[in-house]
Write a structure and sequence with these properties.
The protein is of the alpha/beta class. Helices cover 32% and strands 23% of the residues. The protein folds into 3 domains: 91 residues, Urease, subunit C, domain 1; 116 residues, Diaminopimelate Epimerase, Chain A, domain 1 (Roll), CATH 3.10.310.70; 189 residues, Alpha-Beta Barrel (TIM Barrel). Helix 7 packs across helix 8 and helix 11 runs parallel beside helix 12. Bound molecules: zinc ion.
Amino acid sequence: HMTALIAPRLGIADDGVGQDGNAVEIAGGSVLRVGPVEELRRPGLSEERYPGGVIVPGIVDAHFHPVAYASLLNGLSLKTAADFADLQRRIQNRAAGLDQGRPLIGVRLDDETLAERRLPTRHDLDAWVSDRPVVLHRYCGHIAVANTAALKAGGIDASTVDPEGGSLDRDEEGPTGVVRETAIELVAMPLAGSNRVEQTQLVDAMTALAGLGITSIGAIVGIGDGPWAELGNEVEIVAEAARDLPIKLHCFVIANTIDDLHEAAGMLGAAGARVSFAGVKRFGDGSLGGHTAAMCLPFTDRPETSGLLRLDPEADGALARAAIDLGGRVAVHAIGDCAVGASLDLCESLIARGAEPSRLRIEHVSVITESDIDRFSRLGVTAVVQPAFIGSETEWLAARVGPDRIGRTYAFRSLLDAGVALAGSSDCPVEPPDPWAGMALARDRAGLVPEQSLTGTEALGMFTAGSASAIGLAPPLSTGSAADLVVIDRDPTSVTPDEVRQTQVIATWVDGEPVEIDPGRPHWND
Ligand SMILES: [Zn+2]
């Protein structure tokens, strides 16, 4: 079956795969060629015309949490809560709709935007809901707050010691309910599976992404343990839904043992064409928002701490090699400049043992030293970045990293100029999934350090060719690549960032077939 997609224009990023024309010929789910319609046209070739549209490669989000996203769309989101009274109202409303005793999980809590400018404690939560465990996750995913019932369920009291790589906030009565990094697991694990995402919820969430023009994601998935244990075994949920997914999920598994990684790779490999095993995800540090990112020097607005380095060269190195042996990639979370440096050390040792540099990715790369920018490029490792973080952190970022570091924070221009491969992503549900907003922020940076801005062509390239490469896909629009295409109402390389934000998706094609999209479907929940 041969089809040509025809629109007045092709919008293609300037990344070496750029080809001129206004039509793409598709055969058997793959791209056959790109060119002017007059050259492609012939008898027997059916034509899909999109007058007024622009064809661009399908958007790839290289770092996305699909199950947590599906959970958010159906769950309790707290990001826009104005103050504690508003939090109380939302939490009590939610509790009223849950079965008796069922744990209440909330997400996207943000102390920076609450009038009180602090996280609630277990005492606050107990006054609102005390008859069931309550766990509220901070939007960064690196801090949570539990009520007394949830602490009890986790067996946590004044005698509990901090786990390795995490901490419990304490007052004179013992733990306050605020748990950081690996300590989140102490409250999440006893509630494992209590907020399990249904297959249909995942399929609906991925259909919402197709409506935004996303055709593939680098899907970060857990195996039912860790800080998101409430969601259930994400590998299992993705594998079960595989046959009904409208887009493709290339899965990076958060596994702590090689056996777990093997088991997950097997399950994902057998799931079906829209799901694959893409590698392992490990953590080098926490977040800037939670002051848990590992910095070389202390935070400017909290000089008593420089964050928490979580990388273990031995254990993480062994898991990384296991992922590569399974044909996968390695994704290491590193936000602070110290964590980025330690992650590059790990990459360097993996490369010395034969790893292909293009299989190694560092996630976020929020703050980086000048010398590590050069090392990044020399090693040939990929930086998987989230321009949307800049939009959420505008208020406090400069104060937190200080004047000496702000110029090398989200340093997209410096990285690109040094020759580092950049892959675009949202880290959704840390940020909304809208890739057009991400591209716009890569360009205007909400006004923050404009010298680090990308051009429209570079921004589109980061969310297409760059992110495709970071999950192991062929260059978009190259002959034989999957016919994953999006038709939009404007050329994002030639309009302003604000106009990119208004982009409307006209059609989304995955593997040479149009996907049913519903532009009215909600794709966010604050
Ligand atoms: Zn993430």
